[in-house]
Amino acid sequence: MAIKHDEINIKAGKENIVVMIYGTFSENYVGDVILTPAYGITARSMFSFAYYLTANGYRVYCLDYRNHVGKSTGDIMYCKLSTQVEDVLAILEATKCNKIVSLSLSCRSTIKACAEYNGSVDLVLVTPVVNTAKTVFAASGVDYFTIVDDASDLTQKANILGNVVQYNFVQDAVQNKMDSLNSTIEDLAKIKGNLTCIAGDLDPWVDINDVKYVLDAVKTDMLTIKLNTIHAAAHKINRNPVVAGKYYEESTRECLNMSNVDSTNIIIPNMKEVIRDIGYEKIKVGENHGISK
To answer: How far is CA 232 from CA 108, 198, 203, 225, in A?
Structure first.
């Protein structure tokens, strides 16, 4: 059965944040979840991940960030993590949904957004970037966070995780304290709710020891923390269907646990069916779902 799609716009000043809504096709509706795409990935490309969640009773809100790839306002050339923080806060407010699944670099902006959010949240962070500067260096081979300083021409170009952006990306991450392990620890300490990190033990871009260090260093009674390890030596999980399935399953299982639903009966979609349905989904633009456009 193909997932029903809808598309809405959330206003951010004069700009638009486009949100794909993947409707559940399970007989038992469990709740809503926000799914933030990995850096350089569109909401449309998150279909396979959303399929696991919708098959298990969730309605999924997946946004295209502004100044990013996808349908929202702006171009990825002008990408900044601080804009993504604003987008996450906007979708939290618009949907009234406090359960979030984030991937890769988007985890860092989600962490910052939840640190600024007044309410309690349930977070599942997949291949979570906890040290932006280190991950960028590992992925690009260039230490942009050392090269870029106050004297730099911020319109110069950097290759950040395979996408060309302006140096302003780096300055923005530093100025808004989203560049280091210590800043991640500080933000996590401000979050209320539940957090599960799902990380690969051999991820070349995110050191599992950094993830462990950050989680061990967070001293707060407001946040319940858990780490699940996947045996995987890749960061871009969508390149390997078997590895991707492991992450999707584990993430869905954690969402179910956070929703107080028995996860032993989790539905594991057949990947052939998922791939088939990618070609058949129908997008209906304009249905409100209780959200102001």
So the answer is: 21, 11, 6, 21
From edge to edge, which strands make up the β-sheet containing 5-12?
223-230, 193-200, 121-126, 99-103, 31-36, 58-63, 15-22, 5-12, 283-285
Q: Rounded to an integer, what distance in angstroms lies between the CA atom of residue 43 and that of residue 57?
A: 19
Distance between CA 163 and CA 226 in Å, rounded? 31
Q: How many CA atoms lie within 13 A of 138 on its CB side?
A: 14
Which helix (DSSP H) or strand (DSSP E) does residue 249 occupy? helix 241-258
Nearest CA to 170 out of 188, 185, 187, 157 is that of 157
CA distances to 7, 123, 214 from 16, rounded to whole Å, are: 12, 25, 34
CA–centroid distance for 94 within its chain: 17
Handedness of CA 251, 254, 255, 256 (dihedral sign): positive
Q: What is the pLDDT along the chain (293 residues), one digit of tens a residue?
A: 556 778 999 999 899 999 999 988 777 899 999 999 999 999 999 999 999 999 999 999 999 999 999 999 999 999 999 999 999 999 999 999 999 999 999 999 999 999 999 999 999 999 999 999 999 999 999 999 999 998 999 999 999 988 999 999 999 999 999 999 999 999 999 999 999 999 999 999 999 999 999 999 999 999 999 999 999 888 888 778 888 999 999 999 999 999 999 999 999 988 666 665 654 444 443 444 445 44
Chain-centroid distance of CA 100 in Å reads 8
Joined together, the tokens standing for residue 230 give: 């996947």
Specify the 3-state DSSP secondary structure of 195. Answer: strand
Which token pair is 77?
A: 């050339």
Question: pTM score > 0.85 for this model?
Answer: yes
DSSP label of 275: H
